[in-house]
Amino acid sequence: MSVAVIGVGAIGGLVAAELLAAGADVTLCTRSPLDRLVVERDQHPRDFATHALTDPAHAEAVRFVVVALKAQDSASAAPWLARLAGPDTTIVVIQNGVEHDARLSPHAVVPAIINTAVERLAPGRLKHGSGDTLTLADRPGAPEFAALLDGSIINTALETDFTTAAWRKLFANLAGNPLTTITQRRSEVFQVPEAYELARTVLEEALPVGRAEGAQLSDDDPQRTMDFLSALPPHVGSSMLYDRLNGRPLEIDPLVGAVIRAGRRHGLPTPRAETLHALLTALP
Question: Of 70, 103, 120, 169, which residue is the catalytic one?
Fold first, then answer.
């Protein structure tokens, strides 16, 4: 099975390496040449020679395309998809947030979220800390893609209620990413009572918004999210923190902005999310 991966950062690189480990034929679609993909971790490290393209004009249709660009960069997938997507192609979009379909319209996609902590150390070099679950919306093509990862360290799950799954992942991003990024601290920041309480109240505010969007969230979801964040090893950072530390654009709008937009659609106030959005936007 041929697979093209658009966006070979932390998530795209990890997924590409695990597809290679499982024996898939993988083409990397990158801005700059990349001839090696290395994943550092205590067990099952990866080190592969890679086939990479930097010009969409050289791409040909494949059976699967993985779009793992940052959500705000989704538009840059268009020239690649114009060449890679044929009538039988399944497009898997692995991104944070809850607006996967809108970002890649008019293409039909399989939305996906991944729960993992992975840091991009340099182009083609990653450090995988924890987490290995890829959740895919149960749509046509998803089971076949999941099967490609058999034999890798990534565990796949097909989800019929992807809206709820995506909002639960968004809860972790909404509480975890802004606070680590603003404070430039890792998960140990949630041991600070004031930071913990701020994160919890942001989630309480977002709870009715997610429900209004159709997510089957329970009253316990905010606390479960905080229990998860508080239990992370203290050295674990967030993707947004890593982006700030490396001078890359921040995923503010797809995460915090998505909650604000949904709140406005349903007439629900989101003052704490708006405050976090303003603080993140004002960062140098």
Answer: 169
* Catalytic site includes residue 169: yes
Q: Which residues, 6+ apart, have CB-to-CB distance to 16 below 8 Å?
A: 5, 8, 26, 28, 37, 50, 66
Q: Provide DSSP, 165-220.
A: HHHHHHHHHHHHHHHHHHHT--GGGGGSHHHHHHHHHHHHHHHHHHHHTT----TT
Give pLDDT tens digits along the chain (284 positions). 799 999 999 999 999 999 999 999 999 999 999 999 999 999 999 999 999 999 999 999 999 999 999 999 999 999 999 999 999 999 999 999 999 999 999 999 999 999 998 999 999 999 998 899 999 999 999 999 999 999 999 999 999 999 999 999 999 999 999 999 999 999 999 999 999 999 999 999 999 999 999 999 999 999 999 999 999 999 999 999 999 999 999 999 999 999 999 999 999 999 999 999 999 999 99
Domains and CATH numbers, the chain: 2-160 (3.40.50.720), 163-281 (1.10.1040.10)
To the question of pTM greater than 0.85 for the whole model, the response is yes
